[in-house]
């Protein structure tokens, strides 16, 4: 699955799932724009990849600010002349302070909508004109199995990911005539900085997890809910992203594909 000299943008890419996708793209020969709101982490990650011979570019980007997105896209075109692949990965679980809340508050709905859904549309809209000009493009939205099954503890996040899945299907229909494939990846349990915060919230608000460390909670959920008995890694998500970004997936579009060890079979 060769991505040699393909130009990819990955948002929320300095750590977690985004970093796993960037690693795999670079390994398969892509030139990658690492777009993230945290400049220090982004530049540090880019420097590490450059030392290993990969061609990457660090861009401090706030996906909720259209001027920031447009600047990142313009920098990408100036540097690499084209855009072949977009991975909309930037996401949040909830607003600050959610660890101490048992249920979603209005601010959680606001931020998950802005980052997890509206920004996906904004970044896509900024990139698609260049893909249309080339009659080629691969767009991959990182959703969640939670967008298919829901959750009593954080409906705001789950609704935003359900929206991402729906947006993926709509975009696939809209852009198919331009030879642009649009798909979503729906991860299950992945141990990332976000996962640590999620389990901290569970430990603070669910009696069955009182006095358990975040990793203990996470491991217990993996054991209870995943048929394969193991969690997923950022690299697992990256592997599927490489496939969806390659010509091996040229007839796949509008799909929301789980990487969850069998916890959800839909």
What's the topology here?
Layout (H helix, E strand, L loop, with lengths): L6 E5 L4 H12 L3 E6 L2 H13 L4 E5 L5 H15 L4 E4 L17 H29 L2 E6 L3 H4 L5 H21 L4 E8 L5 H13 L8 H12 L8 H12 L10 E4 L7
Parallel strand pairs: 1-2, 1-4, 2-3, 4-5, 5-6, 6-7
Shape type:
globular
Number of strands: 7
- Based on CA atoms alone, the radius of gyration comes out at 18 Å
Low-pLDDT parts are none
Question: Architecture, CATH level 2?
Answer: 3-Layer(aba) Sandwich
Q: What structural category arises from helix and sheet content?
A: alpha/beta
Beta-strand portion reads 5-15%
CATH topology name: Rossmann fold
Distance between the termini: 26 Å
The CATH superfamily title: NAD(P)-binding Rossmann-like Domain
Count of spatially separate domains? 1
Oligomer: single chain
């Amino acid at each position: 699955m060769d991505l040699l000299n393909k130009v990819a943008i990955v948002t929320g890419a300095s750590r977690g799932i985004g970093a796993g996708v960037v690693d795999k793209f670079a390994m398969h020969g892509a030139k990658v724009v690492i777009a993230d709101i945290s400049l220090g982490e982004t530049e540090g990650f880019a420097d590490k990849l450059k030392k290993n011979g990969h061609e990457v570019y660090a861009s401090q980007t706030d996906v909720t600010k259209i001027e920031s997105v447009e600047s990142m896209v313009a920098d990408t075109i100036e540097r690499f002349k084209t855009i072949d692949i977009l991975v909309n990965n930037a996401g949040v679980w909830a607003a600050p302070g959610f660890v101490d809340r048992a249920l979603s508050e209005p601010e959680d709905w606001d931020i998950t909508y802005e980052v997890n859904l509206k920004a996906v549309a904004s970044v896509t809209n900024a990139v698609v004109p260049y893909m249309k000009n080339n009659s080629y493009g691969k767009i991959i939205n990182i959703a969640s199995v939670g967008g298919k099954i829901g959750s009593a503890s954080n409906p705001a996040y789950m609704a935003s990911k359900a929206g991402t899945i729906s947006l993926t299907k709509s975009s696939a229909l809209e852009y198919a005539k331009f030879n642009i494939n649009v798909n979503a990846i729906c991860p299950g349990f992945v141990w990332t900085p976000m996962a640590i915060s999620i389990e901290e919230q569970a430990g603070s608000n669910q009696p069955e997890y009182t006095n358990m460390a975040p990793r203990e909670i996470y491991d217990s959920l993996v054991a209870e809910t995943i048929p394969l008995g193991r969690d997923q890694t950022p690299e697992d998500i990256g592997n599927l992203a490489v496939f969806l970004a390659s010509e091996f997936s040229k007839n796949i579009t509008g799909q929301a594909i789980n990487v969850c060890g069998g916890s959800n079979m839909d």
